[in-house]
Amino acid sequence: MDAAEFRALWDGLSPIGRSKRGYERYSWTDADQQCRNWFRTQADKRGMEVETGRSGNIFAWWGSLSDGDAVLTGSHFDSVPHGGAFDGPLGIVSAFLAIDVLRRTGAKPRRPIGIVAFTEEEGGRFGVPCVGSRLMTGALDPDVARNLTDRDGITLAEAMEASAADPSILGVDRDRLANLGAFVELHIEQGRALDAEDAPVGVASAIWPHGRWRFTFTGEANHAGTTVMADRHDPMLTAAFMVLAARKEARIVGGIATVGRLDAEPGAANVIPGTVRAWLDARAPDEAVLGQIVDGIESKVVDRAERDRTRVAIEAESETPLVEFDAGLRDRIAELLGGVPILPTGAGHDAAVLAQHVPTAMLFVRNRTGVSHAPGEKADYEDCAAGADALAAVLRELAC
Ligand SMILES: [Zn+2]
Fold first, then answer.
1. In CATH, which superfamily holds the domain spanning 3-208+322-399?
2. pTM assigned to the model
């Protein structure tokens, strides 16, 4: 496939949810509906049957899932706030193009081939990542999911209803899982390892364990002009200390920690905040190191809160253990693609959730700058075409 063929399909999807500040493609919004409509149109054009699972995800099938041992590919449409174009959508566009490649070479699948768009992978609207895949596999309780709220206080259930979807159907999809034989997710690389190896495509070895923790710092809201320093209970100080502690604890042990979101209440420039919430994202090569980072931050922050005369409560919003992808599948794919690089990643994916239940693999497409989760995220169209070809080769190997 050449870059022009890739672009012809890509350019139809990429304007959806795009703004001057990057992508704002959140689940159960107008942009999401437009993406789903695009998905239906592409499936219709290829004679693939579309259905929605019990988890808000959307599927297109070449063959029938009920025949079992199906090979599923795909990714997600949703973005982080002000995200890039490629994280997620690349895997879905490439999946339809891979089907085209198989079709024109006369491939006849002996196993059903499916394309999926998982919902709310980034947690950009409801705060919890991989909602669609976790619901499908039973890793997320449907009642918990229905009551997740966005920044405006709208619950996931309300958002689904506003999109004419039925939240009461949410739940584990055991029949679907039982009929899957493999899952392969193609994704833009979120680092520069492939660029360093001068390779357009690679295969994932493992996903670092990672998680999100919500820190709630409580103090006393008061007048910024009249409250003398000695009388303050300022939770912003404790939160600021936590941001610095996160960096230090992660650096010491070779992990990664980020505080990318901070909310202050009441959030006025002339008021000492009463409450500050901060979200910690931490990742590490193994679970022991990840635990060390979070425990280290916690003990230092509890100490600091005492000095600031504030209180801190810490709640894990999500925790994902180390995921090692199916070694047999990984090696088979790497060999099939001519010995492409095999690399780990610090990013979470629906593939990590599926890997607990189904032999799963990931393909990465080169990202020359390594920028991701930001508007500068970019893959060369030639590399995207190479990715779609690689995915077609994998689907042929597994399903035809
Ligand atoms: Zn992604």
1. Zn peptidases (3.40.630.10)
2. 0.84
